[in-house]
Amino acid sequence: MATITLSHALADCLDALREGESLKACLNRYPEHRERLRPLLEVAQTLHREEYREEATPSPDFVG
Questions:
Q1: pLDDT digits (tens, 9 = 90+) for 2-54
Q2: pTM for the full predicted model
Q3: What is the DSSP letter of 53?
Q4: Where are the alpha helices (DSSP H) in the chain?
Q5: Domain coordinates of the chain in residue numbers?
Q6: pLDDT value for 47
Q7: Distance between CA 8 and CA 34 in Å, rounded?
Q8: DSSP single-letter state for residue 4
Q9: Residue 56 pLDDT exceeds 70
Q10: Which residues lie closer than 8 Å to 17 by C-beta, 6 or more apart?
Q11: At 2, phi and psi to the nearest 5?
Q12: What does the alpha-carbon distance between residue 38 and residue 49 come to, in Å, rounded to a whole number?
């Protein structure tokens, strides 16, 4: 059996997350990379959510 690289696992999980698969399911698919994949995929999920968030209006305190 061929060894799956971290970059292959990451690419596969990013595709799977875009298609609606859960983070847990993806991590379970690659237990040998779980510790390194988790933070990368969590960042990707956060960035994806931010992309679809409505534009925020700065608070008056921030604007000054």
A1: 789 999 999 999 999 999 999 999 999 999 999 999 999 999 988 877 666 65
A2: 0.72
A3: S
A4: 6-18, 23-29, 34-52, 60-63
A5: 6-52
A6: 84
A7: 13
A8: P
A9: no
A10: 23, 26, 41, 44, 45, 48
A11: -75, 145
A12: 16
